[in-house]
Amino acid sequence: MAVHFTILGSGSGGNCALLECGDTRILIDAGFSGRQIRQRMAAINRSPETLSGILITHEHSDHIQGLLGLAAKTGIKLYCNRLTKEAIEAQFKTTFQCQLFITGNSFEIGEMEVDTFSVPHDAYDPVGFLIKTECGNIGFLTDLGHATKMVVERIRQSHILVLETNHDHKMLQEDVKRPWSVKQRILSRHGHLSNDAAADVLEQVVSPALRKVFLGHLSRDCNKPELARKAIVSRLERMKATHIEVEVTSQEESSPTLTLHELAPIPVMQTSPEFLPTTRIPSATPLLPGFL
Which long-range contacts link 252-257 to residues 24+ away (Cβ below 8 Å)? Predict the structure, then answer.
């Protein structure tokens, strides 16, 4: 059974991805308008009515703005923790059909197993995901100021990783649109990862099993795709981890669908001493705005 993964868009103004495994289809976040998500799904011959659920990382608008046009109208179930549910319902002033999880626990949606873990970000109870399928594991780290030891351990099992490269440090420092207080929030340990900080995280989780990294959540004003890619690729080259493909995502358009088949043998690679091999997995609160 093949697994299909499509990032419908990722950036500081909206984030949404589609993961399909057999008859199970889920969105990870819904950060564009309901209409825009429908259009992007239609472009790959999919519709929201076929979804099994929507996983929510946290309540910032660039991750949930499409929920009213999708889940509220169709009854699609949301998977989130309690504090995130309360923040979302307070913002939209309506209730949603929710399946609550406790952060740190795991649960199943059809053919997928979802591991949840806490991430340091300026939200009520933000989480990252490691979604396990028989064709590989997909990790999500899209909003965090730094990676704790626990985050590194949980994401190290990824074969595919969505990793935030939000800003270039120099561009953010020189940006004239943002007051210093906002820059401090972005740069804080509960803010967003810079390109170099993302490379530091990646260096801790690289393994022979990691096949592809999607660079996501780029700031419109304080980053450029070529800067994000250069920071990550140069670090991988230094580590001799050239088996890992790097793709920069876009907020304006979907990435090409990635199809995962049952995992082929893991390639042999020269590893630095710090590499840690990954075991192969068998076949009433107001909404907090995003920073950038």
Answer: 252/9, 252/11, 253/9, 254/6, 254/7, 254/8, 254/9, 254/40, 254/43, 254/44, 255/6, 255/7, 255/214, 256/6, 257/4, 257/5, 257/6, 257/44
pLDDT above 80 for 15: yes
Domain of residue 50, CATH code: 3.60.15.10
DSSP secondary structure code for residue 166 in this structure: -
- Per-residue pLDDT averaged across 179-203, rounded? 96
Please give the pLDDT value at position 263: 57
Question: pTM (2 decimals)?
Answer: 0.89
- Say if 87 falls within a structural domain: yes
* Angle formed by the axes of helices 82-92 and 67-74, nearest 10°: 100
CB 20 within 8 A of CB 4: yes
The total of structural domains in the chain comes to 1
Q: In which domain, by residue range, is 14 found?
A: 3-256
